[in-house]
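A quick aside before the break. I want you to see a complete sequence-to-structure record at least once, exactly as it would be stored in a machine-readable document. Don't worry about memorizing anything.
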Amino acid sequence: MELKQLKRLGEYQWEIPKEGDMRVPALVFASKELVSDMDEKVREQLSNVASLPGIVKAAIAMPDAHWGYGFPIGGVAAFDPDDGGIISVGGVGYDISCGVRNLLTGLTRDEVLPLLESLIDRLFRVVPSGVGSEGKIRLTPAELDDVLTGGAQWAVEQGYGLPEDLAHTEEEGRLEGADPSCVSDIAKRRQYRQVGTLGSGNHYLEIQYVEEIFHQPSAKAFGLKQGDVVVAIHCGSRALGHQIGTDYLQILDKAGKKYQIPIRERELVCTPINSPEGKRYYKAMACGVNCALANRQVITHLTRQVFHEIVPKAIVKNLYDVSHNTCKIEEHRVNGKVKRLYVHRKGATRAFGPGRPEIPEAFRNIGQPVLIGGTMGTCSYILVGQETGEALAWGSACHGAGRSMSRRAALKRWKGRKVIAELAHRGILIRAASYRGAAEEAPEAYKDVTSVVDSTHRAGLARKVAKLRPMACIKG
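That is the input. The structure line, written in tokens, reads:
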């Protein structure tokens, strides 16, 4: 992105000034180096989002932003339903409620190392991964509807996990407003056998250890100590979420023309929040959120079983579960008044500061855990939300490293077998459903996650708490 087209507001804050039919300016939170490396398409897409009806304050990009479908990945935008605000498929993404869950194990790195290969091999057998992967759970149409309305709460009721898992899950494991009748039969058929599966792409199940603590009070509240072993689960709503996105792109395209919504780019199809089509999309998207929450809950249950089988002394607890492809109805202060807004986070993580009622009681005085996935060869981070982030970006932070290279380009440059061998040489065990997937996810195909997290921290969006290093990883 050309810096000369931006106005620098601070060391880690940049503005794309309002011009033409932009209703608000756009903001980019990143270091000079990260902004310079961003594709010019990010600036274009932010400007397009800033032109949508009912947008409040600014179209926003996180430090890991890169070109996406309609909205940039790493994009945040809030819309006011009382001011003609819209809801957009592009602002949520196809993998609805893709997110991260981190599990504490009660074990140290030294205790796990001798058993690492047994753990990752068993997990690889128990947790299905890869394109079209199916699990052992077979759902009837009525049972799938229960998943779409019940989310992780449904999973726990069925015996897949513990009630205390829900207390440390966003929305307590269930987003209200879901209506399975708004989800197509095609989408449902694609999901009957996919609950409890990782899928493909950048999804993973990773055994990590805490290498460094940056903020001791937050680490203590989160139950983290240096050397502790943590398990990260990164996945979403699988085929169902993708089909919901596909279905509603067509529906919202027709609706946008019907309501004469001006859009700069075909991929930004949208409809008024309060329109019948907008309400149906939100209800379908909420089903996708609940599907993803149920999925990560079932994988948590399977992971817990494996750890207890191989390391009986393990105490596997849910630290937190947060999504990064959603549209959430939230209350925020706008011009001194509390407004009910529809906040789109597409490849961006909610990062509320202390005191918000949405945060689990155990963390309410310290702030919400913010889980940032890296790559299978580098590191991941845990941050904590801050009040400053709410004022800057609706309580949002980055979600990962962000790709610096397309999957196609990565396939041309790396071979999966070699990527796996090189990581094994560094002591990181990889189990992949395909060599192709491993090549696409080569660590060098991503931005430097530490630079992304440092920008997030220094911009005041969220505070660094802990750095996690991979020990073993399952890739789809």
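Two observations worth writing down. The mean pLDDT is 96. Residues 270 and 331 are 22 Å apart (CA to CA). We'll return to this after the break.
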